[in-house]
Amino acid sequence: MSFTVKNPLQDLDLSQPQIMGILNATPDSFSDGGRYLDVHRALDRIHIMRTEGASIIDIGGESTRPGADSISVKEEVKRVLPIIQASVDTFPDTILSIDTTKYEVAEVALRAGVRIINDVSGIQKDPQMAELAGKYGASYVIMHSVGDPKNMQDNPSYTNVVEEVYAFFEKQIKVAQSYGVETIILDPGIGFGKTTEHNLKLLAHLDKFKKIGFPILVGASRKSMIGNLLDERPVEDRLIGTIAVHYDALTRGANILRVHDVKEASDSLRIFQAIQSQR
Known about the structure:
eight-stranded parallel sheet; globular
């Protein structure tokens, strides 16, 4: 099945898996906080990710790590807008995504040239975000999460995590479509209000979410689940675990991998595609 992310500059064919590179313009993200607050360093990083194989760059100004505090709209805009503006000018053929749950931040980003809203609240925090996406013709990533980063890992529980996430997607898709959103991407939200077991069950049943009929995004890059499975491995030593999780997700139909390590993810994707081409 072929999907296309609308973009006035470039169409992105999701019938082939794509890499979304992470650009955190934050001082406190769990993996690379503080590295890319400066516009020039951010542009250098985007250039590297593009060269290494990222077709989407996801820019975020507020940390969503477990326990993170929320910041003001003003501060978030201050962090991301200069990077977005410089990126649009420097890399006009690159699809940019804004990682935010705030309407005002998303609107500023869309006006500046961003074409994807990556909403970790899955339209729960502000349903008007979907209206905004419809107005601008933007694609919308609906991610499943419980609570907010401050409390989402406080004893998360489900009767059946796969069925509950599936039902959540069905409900939120209807909300998005009611506001005119045409291009929807689904993200099961690995690590957002879930235990390691919950995450593993979602990944093992990723093909179930494919049946809904929309592209699937998986973001497990360097997440605590990997550290837990590898005897409390630190963040900087979770690359191989990340590749293993994402490769398995590809075999189950993932369309977009959201990653910190673009080169390694791209290498893995090339091997995956080479094998698939022989089937």
